[in-house]
Write a structure and sequence with these properties.
268 residues, TIM Barrel, 9 helices, globular
Length: 268
């Protein structure tokens, strides 16, 4: 059984067939999902996925949407974390790849959410695009209890630094591209206990969905992604599935393996 440790099931791209997406995931052998929020406006939709499907959720303010974040959203987030008890604070972090983002605002919201995670003793799901060293700096400053470095694409030195802070590293669709040599090398060489699997659906489509036109990513793609990781490591898909599942549960103590349910009313 596999866990998709990062899937935006609440995204608008799934509005027309969300139940079917979950059914396909279950049929493919994906036993559970983690759905991270990205803005205050999506908190309700994120929590609705937990109510309907029994998946795990994280709550946070994503750096890509910093222009829309407000101080009031931080207060709203704190109240919801206390009330709704997510398994992590996320998706939070820094993005220094997309032009036009306000770096200072990103840092301010990131630090405020790290403080919140520390106060509630929760792990974090961090976005680290072109910002690995800066994210590490603030993780060391605030001393959170670890979490997942989502879509990891840094160096081995940076990987080791995240591992020392109690993090697991997320690998997904980018690993399936032959040209992603650094990511594939890290996936092959890192200790297996360092790795969790993710789709980032509907984004970061694996190589077989690249198109044209590109296909929509969804959690049912995770078993094939796991097969790629097994091939890179010369291991078996069953062992990869078991290890990455156990790694996800270890780094997110609030995550339970209650069965994912398609189109039901459930709470995990």
């Amino acid at each position: 059984m596999l866990i998709d440790s990062h899937c935006h099931l609440d995204a608008a791209e799934f509005d027309d067939d969300r139940d079917q997406v979950v059914r396909r995931a279950l049929a493919a052998g994906v036993a559970q999902l983690l759905v991270p929020a990205v803005t205050a406006a999506t908190f309700a939709a994120t929590l609705a996925t937990r109510e309907r499907y029994g998946c795990a959720v994280a709550l946070g303010l994503h750096p890509l949407y910093e222009a829309g974040h407000r101080d009031a959203h931080l207060a709203q987030l704190a109240a919801l974390v206390a009330q709704a008890r997510p398994v992590a604070v996320g998706e939070i972090g820094l993005d220094f790849f997309v032009p036009g983002l306000d770096a200072a605002r990103q840092v301010a919201f990131f630090e405020a959410q790290l403080r919140l995670a520390r106060d509630f003793d929760l792990p974090v799901i961090v976005h680290i695009r072109r910002s690995q060293d800066q994210v590490l700096k603030y993780l060391r400053k605030w001393g959170v209890r670890g979490g997942i470095a989502h879509a990891f694409n840094g160096s081995r030195q940076q990987a080791d630094a995240f591992l020392k802070l109690g993090f697991k590293l997320g690998f997904g669709g980018a690993m399936t591209y032959g040209g992603s040599q650094r990511i594939r090398r890290l996936a092959a060489e890192l200790p297996l206990e360092a790795i969790v699997l993710e789709t980032d659906a509907p984004d970061i489509a694996p190589a077989w969905l690249a198109g044209p036109p590109p296909g929509r990513n969804e959690p049912a793609q995770l078993p094939r992604i796991a097969q790629v990781l097994a091939g890179l490591r010369q291991d078996t898909p069953a062992r990869i599935a078991a290890a990455t599942r156990d790694n996800t549960l270890a780094v997110l103590p609030g995550f339970t393996m209650a069965p994912l349910q398609a189109g039901s009313t459930a709470r995990s």
